[in-house]
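Researcher: Before we compare anything, I want clean individual predictions. No alignment, no superposition, just each chain on its own. First chain goes here; please echo the sequence and then give the structure tokens.
Model: Echoing the first chain and its structure:
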Amino acid sequence: MPAGRVAAGGVPPRALDPRRLLVFGEVGRSGSLSGAARVLGWTQPAVSQHVRRLERDVGVALIARRGRGIVLTAAGRVLLEHAEAVAARLAEAEAALADLAGLRTGRVGLAAFPSAAATFVAAAMTGLAEDHPGLDVVLDQLEPPQALEHLARGGCDVAVVFDHLDEPAVQDGGVVVPLLEEPLLLVLPPGHPLAGRAQVDVGELAAERWVAGCPRCRAHLVRTAAAAGFSPQVRHSTDDYVVVQSMVASGGAVALLPSLALAASRHPAVVVRPPAVPVTRAVSARLAAESAQLPAVRALLAQLRRAAAPHRAP
């Protein structure tokens, strides 16, 4: 009966109890109360009680006794069709959940910044596909602020982000899974006077022109330079690490790039040196607390940790 309707006499109908409906379905399939009791592992009186209560709820008789067995009434035959449909849908739900729990199917959304996406995130996705070919992983390449917004809106399950160690990490109330501490490296043009050094003091590059990256990376460069006693001459800005290296290779500037960017794509002409005072940033996976126990998310995190290991700072 549609919602809001009432039965004859103005009495609202009782809602069908799904459990009683499933018990009745077993009675109909078994052809007897005792047969249903054996299948269910119950006593016959318990099965009989469920059927009587279901009959009271629907307001009509559903079974009629014939000798030691029962037959279904016309109403019982109609209700049995619905009981079997409910049982079938529940079986489908159990199978679907088993597939998800066993990672035989499902979908997990991932957001990551470009250099991570091009390196260990790609490796993690490959490993996940090999272990669980039925699991669909969808990647959105986003810088950390946009990735965290995407995560907050439910657009992905896991966001891979970075935080510079000289700035407070973003606190969003979710779960933070550390993946690696990534060194940042100085990128010099070929033939630079300091190219022969094993390490380079950032302060010795005070007179150079710099290429800066995304807004957060540029702010970090300014702070790093300030700690070395100067304000950098930022002449170019691009968040494309391939373009950064091309500009440096042409001899027009220097840069400070994360090691993941250089692992993803290395210009053959540039010279890369670590700063005399190490500069690092923390790369982590962020996720909502309620996602932490999802099998697909746990499998993805395991692959991310494994793939990130070779990129960790010594």
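Researcher: Okay. Second chain, same rules.
Model: Second chain and its structure:
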Amino acid sequence: MKFLFILLSFVLADNSCSESNINQNTLLIEYSARSRGIYKNIKINKKTISIINKREAAVFTKPCSKAHWDSLLKVLKPIDVKNISHLKAPSQNRFFDGAAIARLKIVYNGNTYETQAFDHGNPPEEIAALVKEILSISENIE
């Protein structure tokens, strides 16, 4: 009986922390990478994925599928968004043109949370899965 009670409490606790508790309509995730030779800007919200791959190029926009959105929410969930501005970049190749300068910005309920600059291709460990998912989605949409 105790086992059943403990199992039930875990299930209920997990459901109370699900992605459905956040207002997904006010969430925007933006990733940018810039250098002399690279320009990439990706914006994803629940409805659309917008990508610019070259300076002064037209915006490529596609609907955001439920599968892509759910995968982003899954990797976003463990991140302490309010503290991403304090994350330290693991490398400094962007200082000598060894890597593009990248940033991650999350806009939620009118508040903007942005990382410090980091090397494109080498984000801080805490956001690495999210950055990888954003780049994967942007490269694999039709």
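Researcher: What stands out in the second chain?
Model: The longest strand covers residues 27-34. Additionally, The chain has one domain: 24-140.
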